[in-house]
Write a structure and sequence with these properties.
The protein is an alpha/beta fold. It is built from 10 helices and 5 strands.
Length: about 210
């Protein structure tokens, strides 16, 4: 880490607290009781949404089709976004402090419905745009790619003229970290919600 100049952060489980079970529970309350095959199909549909290969409206229609009820958009969005919790102030302040020494970026597998919600939460909590927290924010649904595809990391490196060996990628999903490391990027796989228990020690030990 001696020559570290750049840090790329994942969002969910790293900066943003999430609980996917809350979304599963919310959809069950709406009447979604899917089979294993339907769950596999749904995951593929969710991945398409994260890649921007599907739209929020198509997603809502897909959920209505699964449930068999004409549920309002707002209720579907609320259930889908139930997993999104808070963005703790200590993590925000830590990222702000890191910007004084490193170039800081965000790279997230997400979708338009979720993006609107966590942007709103951040603005209400801190009074400025979430986009301003990082030098540049990268969202899978805007890029047409999702982690762990190597191309998504290559795009971030190329567009910002980052050298892989001078860059650290932080994620709570090991598969994503391994993909970054295969390109020569330094990787840090953390437990969800444990950013401040893990990254400061790593950086301090490199000084």
């Amino acid at each position: 880490m001696q020559n570290l100049k750049n840090i790329i952060f994942d969002l969910g489980g790293v900066i943003l607290n999430i609980d996917a079970q809350l979304t599963f529970d919310a959809f069950r309350k709406l009447g979604l009781n899917s089979s294993l095959q339907e769950e596999k199909e749904a995951m593929n549909f969710f991945f398409d949404l994260e890649r921007g290969h599907s739209t929020p409206m198509a997603f809502r229609n897909y959920i209505r089709q699964l449930i068999g009820v004409d549920i309002p958009d707002e209720e579907i969005d609320a259930a889908w976004s139930a997993m999104i919790l808070d963005i703790p102030a200590d993590r925000v302040r830590y990222v702000e402090d890191l910007k004084r020494k490193y170039r800081i970026f965000l790279l997230s597998n997400t979708n338009e419905i979720h993006r609107l919600k966590f942007h709103r939460i951040f603005k209400e909590s801190y009074g400025y745009s979430f986009d301003q927290l990082f030098e540049r924010n990268y969202y899978s649904h805007e890029m047409g790619l999702r982690k762990p595809d190597q191309k998504i990391f290559q795009q971030v490196l190329k567009e910002n003229r980052l050298i892989a060996s001078e860059t650290l990628f932080v994620d709570d999903v090991e598969e994503n970290v391994l993909a970054a490391e295969s390109l020569g990027i330094k990787g840090l796989n953390i437990l969800p919600g444990k950013l401040l228990e893990t990254l400061p020690e790593l950086l301090n030990n490199s000084i």
